[in-house]
Amino acid sequence: MKIVQALTVKNVFGLHARPAGMIAGIAVRSKSSVKIRYKNETIDARSMIRILILAVHKSDDVTFTIEGDDAQATLDALTHAFETKFGEA
């Protein structure tokens, strides 16, 4: 299964260390391939450092391409993280 979905960053400081670590953690636990596209760059979501280098800010959209057997569960976990602002107030 392949899913392509855009998610909007809602937390104040964008994809800084904590959210990047959460995204990478979800990707590492997934059996699926998880890619992030932001502007003109696509990266492997398993790399926290690569996520940080993207320098994604609040209200920016990132597009996830998730391909594999647990793609929907992975997207659900990512969507929950984004919707709850990565546990930030």
Annotate the secondary structure layout.
Layout: E1 2-8, H1 17-29, E2 33-38, E3 41-44, H2 48-54, E4 61-67, H3 71-83
Antiparallel strand pairs: 1-4, 2-3, 2-4
Helix pairs in contact: 1-2, 1-3
Keywords for this structure?
Histidine-containing Protein, Chain: A, alpha+beta, 89 residues
* Number of distinct helices: 3
Percent of residues in β-strands: 25-35%
Instruction: Please state the average pLDDT score.
Output: 97
Note the overall shape: globular
Gross CATH architecture: 2-Layer Sandwich
Strand order of the biggest β-sheet:
1-4-2-3
Euclidean distance between termini CA atoms: 34 Å
State the major sheet.
4 strands, antiparallel
Mind telling me the C-alpha Rg? 12 Å
Number of strands: 4
The total number of structural domains is 1
Structural class: alpha+beta
CATH superfamily: HPr-like
The unreliable regions are none
Brief write-up:
The chain is of the alpha+beta class and 89 residues long. The protein has 3 helices and 4 strands; from the N terminus they run E-H-E-E-H-E-H.
Characterise the protein shown here.
The chain is an alpha+beta fold and 89 residues long. The chain has a single domain, classed as 2-Layer Sandwich (Histidine-containing Protein, Chain: A). 37% of the residues lie in helices and 27% in strands. It contains three helices and four strands. A four-stranded antiparallel β-sheet has the order 1-4-2-3, with helices on one face. The radius of gyration is 12 Å and the shape is globular.
